Amino acid sequence: MNIAIFCGSSSGNSPLFTQAAQALAHSMAARDIGLVYGGGRVGLMGVVADAMLSAGGNVIGIIPQSLADKELAHQDLSELHIVADMHERKASMAERADAFIALPGGAGTLEEIFEAWTWAQLGLHNKPCGFLNVDAYYDKLLSFIDGMVAQGFMKATYREMLQVDTQPEALLNALQHYQPPVMKWANPTAV
Known about the structure:
By secondary structure, this protein is α/β, with parallel strands linked by helices. It has one domain (about 1-175): Rossmann fold, CATH 3.40.50.450. It is built from 8 helices and 7 strands, in the order βαβαβαβαβαβααβα. Strands 4-3-2-1-5-6-7 form a 7-stranded parallel β-sheet, sandwiched between helices. Helix 1 runs parallel beside helix 2. The chain is globular, with a radius of gyration of 16 Å.
């Protein structure tokens, strides 16, 4: 099993973010779960890759040429794939991953996990998507998503697709036992 991790190219202001990235990586390596990630050596991306490598885990990095040209690519990975652009990066990550986790990050992190989650809602894949909610980082976002359900823009079933936990082990358990709902377009009244 491989899990794609989306996370910041910065480490954030709290040491809890770094500690959580390291703990998740160690838990994944202990379960023989491989890491697929954006291939960078900086921020939480670098932290999670380094922690996986130090724990003996398999790390596949996928980075666009433009970022590799800026010397942001991690050179010590199990595999490093340099691709043409961000679209190819995301497609390649999705193809290699069996699940997706968002650690704390910025707009790119959100864009990546939301795309994976949207693809699952549309039935393009049945892979679980999760948030490691470190130090309540995603509380407001999750509340906003709950508002989408309350306002009728999303069925509760699709909100429930998101696996959320504050602890790496519990989140990994949820992802490994995930059962996808019926595909969105199987029911013409679905929102």
